Structures are given as structure tokens and as C-alpha cells.
């Protein structure tokens, strides 16, 4: 049983129909808004569990909608954008979106994104209630208080930057983090060189936590966008 309430913000009728039909068939509740202003109002009055937000809206920029919603709400936001709007997508993630779908997308992709977001929601709720200083994801365990990480029983030997990276990803598990967001958090700046260094550190970190190089379990690469830690089931 799902029964989560999804706010669908989309002005294109055919895309909206595809989404709402899919939601209905999979036992989600939904509300639909055709512009940014209605989206903001609906978010505050109906308190949806997840917002699916098209970036190209008739009355305002979708990124503006995210900034407004983020002033009072942490609701997970999945943006929907056309392939040509890569920079918009990155801007949306930096403004506080959690994930993105690129048009055209399949029903399976939509459902997969919703599942990832639901797992993130569960995690956010349980963390808020327990304030656990230990993060557990599959065999990966991070003891934030002690400042160390383990894979199964084995302690990981991480450099300070690798550990910082791992913590940043874990504290945002399920969320796509852009290169800019990560480099600003790790080095306090974001130059081309930082993004190049980030790739290097990410590669060494992965070598230590991923068992299979070709099938990464914990850290997903979003080419041209950034990285995400996956919540392992
Ligand atoms: Ca549109």
C-alpha cells in the first residue's frame, strides 16, 4: 500500500496524463498543478509527500518554485526536464531538488525514481526520530561520532578528504549532489580543478568501498551532473 500524496506540476497535458495514470495504477494519491504559483500554494496547503516538478512552466522558472518551497519545506522534489536543459537541471539540484527525470522518460523510470525517493523519505523520518550518530547502509557503516567507517567488520582506511566525501554523500543518501555542491562543501570553492580532483578522490574512495568496480553498489555517477549515494535495500 502506497497512498503517498504526489504533487504533479506539469503544463504539458500528455506528460501529465502519463504521470497521473501511472500514479493511479500504482496506488499513489496525486494532485496536479499546471503552473508554478499553483504548485507553491498546493505545497503549502496540501503538504504532499513528494513533488514532481517540470522545469519549463508557463508562469515562472521551475528553479524559482524550488527556491520558494525550500524556504519552508524539505519535501523531496524530483524535477522533470528536457534533455537540452542540462544546465537547468544542475541549477535545480543546487537550488534543493533531490533528483531528476529527463524527458522523454518511461513509466519504469518514473516508478524507480519514486521508489528511491520513498526510501530517502523513510530514512529522513527515522533519522529525525532517532538522531542516530551511526549511519548504516547495507554493509557500510559510518560512526560519525568516532570519525570512522567500516565495510562489514573491516575498518576502512580513508584519507581525510575521502572520509569527508563519504560523510557528505551519506548525509544526503538518495539525493543527487552536483559537482559544485560537493566541491563547495569539501574545499569551500568550485573551480574546474576542484571538479577534476573530485573525480580522483571519488575513484579512490570507490576502490575502497565498492566490491565490484563495474557494478557500483553505493555510489552512482551522474555524468556531467554529480554523484549520489544509493540506499541499499
Ligand atoms: Ca513544460
Descriptive report:
This protein is of the alpha/beta class. It has 2 domains: 5-120, Response regulator (Rossmann fold), CATH 3.40.50; 133-229, Arc Repressor Mutant, subunit A (Orthogonal Bundle). Helices cover 45% and strands 21% of the residues. The protein has 8 helices and 12 strands. It has helices at 13-25, 36-46, 62-70, 86-94, 107-130, 160-171, 179-187, 192-209; strands at 5-9, 29-33, 50-54, 77-82, 99-103, 134-137, 140-143, 148-151, 154-155, 177-178, 219-222, 226-229. The chain has a 5-stranded parallel β-sheet, sandwiched between helices. A 4-stranded antiparallel β-sheet has the order 6-7-8-9, with helices on one face. Strand 4 (77-82), helix 4 and strand 5 form a beta-alpha-beta unit. Helix 6 crosses helix 8. The chain starts with a strand and ends with a strand. The mean pLDDT is 91. Calcium ion (CA) is lined by residues 11-12, 54, 56-57. Calcium ion binds next to loops.
Features:
233 residues, four-stranded antiparallel β-sheet, Arc Repressor Mutant, subunit A, 8 helices, five-stranded parallel β-sheet, 12 strands, Rossmann fold, alpha/beta, binds calcium ion
Summarize the structure.
This protein has 233 residues and is an alpha/beta fold. 45% of the residues lie in helices and 21% in strands. The radius of gyration is 18 Å and the shape is globular.
Q: For the largest sheet, list the strands in their spatial order.
A: 2-1-3-4-5
End-to-end C-alpha gap? 18 Å
Q: Please bin the fraction of helical residues.
A: 40-55%
Question: What's the mean pLDDT score?
Answer: 91
User: What profile does the largest beta sheet have?
Assistant: 5 strands, parallel
Radius of gyration: 18 Å
Under CATH, the homologous superfamily of the largest domain reads Response regulator
Secondary structure tally, helices: 8
Provide the CATH top-level class of the largest domain: Alpha Beta
| Structural class estimated from helices and strands | alpha/beta
- SSE pattern: EHEHEHEHEHEEEEHEHHEE
CATH topology of the largest domain: Rossmann fold
Q: What proportion of the residues form beta strands (DSSP E)?
A: 15-25%
Query: What's the total count of β strands?
Result: 12
- Bound chemical compounds: calcium ion
Shape: globular
| Count of individual domains | 2
Unreliable sequence segments: none
Q: Can you tell me the CATH architecture of the largest domain?
A: 3-Layer(aba) Sandwich
Amino acid at each position: 500500500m502506497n497512498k503517498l500524496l504526489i504533487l504533479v506540476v506539469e503544463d504539458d497535458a500528455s506528460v501529465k496524463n502519463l504521470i497521473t495514470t501511472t500514479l493511479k495504477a500504482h496506488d499513489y494519491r496525486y494532485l496536479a498543478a499546471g503552473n508554478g504559483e499553483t504548485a507553491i500554494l498546493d505545497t503549502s496547503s496540501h503538504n504532499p509527500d513528494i513533488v514532481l516538478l517540470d522545469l519549463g512552466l508557463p508562469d515562472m522558472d521551475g528553479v524559482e518554485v524550488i527556491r520558494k518551497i525550500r524556504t519552508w519545506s524539505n519535501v523531496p522534489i524530483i524535477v522533470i526536464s528536457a534533455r537540452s536543459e542540462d544546465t537547468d537541471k544542475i541549477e535545480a539540484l543546487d537550488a534543493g531538488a533531490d533528483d531528476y527525470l529527463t524527458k522523454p522518460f518511461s513509466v519504469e523510470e518514473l516508478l524507480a525514481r519514486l521508489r528511491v525517493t520513498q526510501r530517502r523519505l523513510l530514512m529522513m523520518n527515522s533519522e529525525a526520530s532517532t538522531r542516530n550518530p551511526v549511519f548504516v547502509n547495507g554493509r557500510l557503516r559510518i560512526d560519525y561520532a568516532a570519525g570512522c567507517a567500516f565495510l562489514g567488520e573491516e575498518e576502512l582506511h580513508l584519507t581525510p578528504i575521502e572520509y569527508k566525501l563519504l560523510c557528505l554523500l551519506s548525509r544526503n543518501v538518495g539525493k543527487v549532489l552536483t559537482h559544485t555542491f560537493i566541491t563547495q562543501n569539501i574545499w569551500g570553492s568550485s573551480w574546474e580543478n576542484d571538479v577534476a580532483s573530485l573525480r580522483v578522490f571519488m575513484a579512490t574512495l570507490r576502490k575502497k568501498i565498492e566490491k565490484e568496480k563495474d557494478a557500483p553498489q553505493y555510489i552512482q555517477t551522474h555524468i556531467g551532473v554529480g554523484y549520489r549515494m544509493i540506499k541499499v535495500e
